[in-house]
Amino acid sequence: MDDETRAKGPWKKNLYILWVCTFVAGLAFSEIMPFMSLYVASMGHYTKSQVTFYSGLVYAITFLITAIASPIWGALADRKGRKVMIIRAGLGTALSMLLMGLTTSVWQLFACRALQGIFAGFISNSQALVASQTPRNQSGRALGTLVTGSTSGMLLGPIVGGILADVFSIRSTFFITAALLLVTTLIAGFFVKEFFVPVERPKRAKGEKRSFLAGFPNPKLTIVLLCSTMIVQLGNASISPILSLYVRELMHYRGPITIVAGIIAALPGLSNIIAAPRLGRYGDHHGTGKVLTAGYLFAVIMYFPQGFVSSIVILGVLRLMIGVSDAALFPSIQTLLTKSSPITATSAIFSWNQSFQALGNMFGAFLGGALAGLFDYNAVFICTACMLLFNFVLLWFTEPSLRRGQVG
């Protein structure tokens, strides 16, 4: 499908509908996280260390299975269509949420979380559908806008989940979440239009081996961008386990610690919502590579001082700025992946991107806890800044087109 055909298609309508759908999906995915460890603790007479261990397993298994399953679903999406994969992911995740509300043991919960990982892909397939239907010169703005849907949903999710669990119960929250996902899937199924034409892949000669990246114009750039997704997400995820503890320390163990920690955690999402569409639009006109470069440098500058602050207000300002760097990095990486991928591999590359993001989530949570335990909270922020600096240097020196401003 060329840009002229895409421009005449319903890409704007799809974008608005999928924004709503990814908002609800982000809300559903994140609203159960604040009380997951409490749910684990309610399933047996466990010690504190056992609850921590089992909670870590239950949390990590979804991301591990997602990392393995996503490329398989992505390859299928490029043959069968992205819309059917959105429906598959929505219905499967709704089923896993329903089963989580029925579990009575931690191992049943573990199995249901693994099932959720198998069916993951609602947001990544939504991004792939928008990317495949949108004119390439509008893809930065479109993907930047779409990212704000899932981001704002994930931002509000813990608050909504906490209220639902308090008003009803933890188990009831899983059932409500399943219903939300079902409704969202039906909206996508009935209102999203996809003009999908499966592309015949070239037949291989007998005995010929052809790698997935063989059809990509710049395989090295693709690999580096996927690794960049993992490193950026690893940095974000490494902060999550220690942020509330760091806030408590800065507040000297006095005052409304949980409320302040919630506000601090929400600030990056708030600035991300505001900045992502604007940075995406700027990248469409001036080059996505420029936005990516600026995003890395800005993130490094904002992460380093977070490990040395003594004021909760300064920490809040710096965390607010992290949302701006995320708004530059994630959509820019996705846009560059879209522009540097053949149209026949759009869903596959977004699924691989989801796999690397899932690995970043999994390793980041472990890294943050380990660094804080071995050293102190500030070590987590310093390490994150160093990883992002390394990632930037890797991109800069392995991809000459980025230095010359020819990327994006």
Gist of the model:
The protein has 408 residues and is mainly α. 79% of the residues lie in helices and 0% in strands.
The CATH topology annotation of the largest domain reads as Growth Hormone, Chain: A
Strand % is under 5%
Q: Uncertain runs with pLDDT below 50, 5 residues or more?
A: none
* Terminal Cα span: 20 Å
Any idea what the CATH superfamily of the largest domain is called?
MFS general substrate transporter like domains
Structural class: mainly alpha
For this structure, what is the CATH class of the largest domain? Answer: Mainly Alpha
Second-tier CATH architecture of the largest domain: Up-down Bundle
Average the pLDDT over all residues and give the rounded result.
82
Count up the domains: 2
Strand element count: 0
Shape assignment: globular
Helix tally equals: 16
Could you spell the SSE succession in H and E letters? Answer: HHHHHHHHHHHHHHHH
Organism: Lacticaseibacillus pantheris DSM 15945 = JCM 12539 = NBRC 106106
Keywords: Cell membrane, Membrane, Transmembrane, Transmembrane helix, Transport
Transmembrane segments: 16-41, 53-73, 85-107, 143-164, 170-192, 212-235, 255-275, 296-322, 377-397
Protein name: Multidrug resistance efflux pump
